[in-house]
Amino acid sequence: MLLVDTDVMVDIVRRHPPAWAWARSRAGETMGLPGLVAMELLQGCRNQEEQQRLETELASHIMYWPRPADCARAYRDYAAFHLSHGLEILDALIAGQR
């Protein structure tokens, strides 16, 4: 199973040729989406039409939400890397999911 990050999902939704080709080549695999990524994508919608189109696209993916252990891992990673590498909270939460 693949968990897809925001940057990749943006390109898939926009039908960017390399991302679209990659997604189609993985058609036999389950493509999951962290729920936080879905929320981040919704945040980028500029109007109701864009949001409805996005929600239709997202409906074909299984959404995964962080578990307590994922949040604990995200906290440790954030504490270790936010100053040195500019790690942001949402990115730590997304990366912390297994």
Which helices and strands, and how do they pair?
Layout: E1 2-3, H1 6-13, H2 17-25, E2 31-34, H3 35-43, H4 48-58, E3 62-64, H5 68-85, H6 89-95
Helix pairs in contact: 1-2, 5-6
Characterize the structure shown:
The protein has helices at residues 6-13, 17-25, 35-43, 48-58, 68-85, 89-95, and strands spanning 2-3, 31-34, 62-64. It is mainly alpha-helical and 98 residues long. It folds into 2 domains: 1-64, 3-Layer(aba) Sandwich (Rossmann fold); 66-98, no CATH class. Helix 1 packs across helix 2. It is globular.
What is the compact description of this entry?
With 98 residues, the chain is mainly alpha-helical.
Query: What is the string of SSEs from the N terminus onward?
Result: EHHEHHEHH
The tally of domains stands at 2
Number of strands: 3
The gyration radius over C-alpha positions equals 14 Å
Task: State the name of the first-level CATH class of the largest domain.
Answer: Alpha Beta
Oligomeric category: single chain
Strands across the major sheet, in which order? 1-2-3
Per DSSP, the total helix count is: 6
The CA-CA distance between the termini, in Å, is 11 Å
Which second-level CATH architecture of the largest domain applies? 3-Layer(aba) Sandwich
The poorly predicted ranges are none
Query: Might you state the CATH topology name of the largest domain?
Result: Rossmann fold
Gross geometry: globular
**Alpha-beta classification:** mainly alpha
Q: What is the share of helical residues?
A: 55-70%
Report strand %: 5-15%
Average pLDDT, to the nearest integer? 92
Main beta-sheet strand count, sense and barrel state: 3 strands, parallel
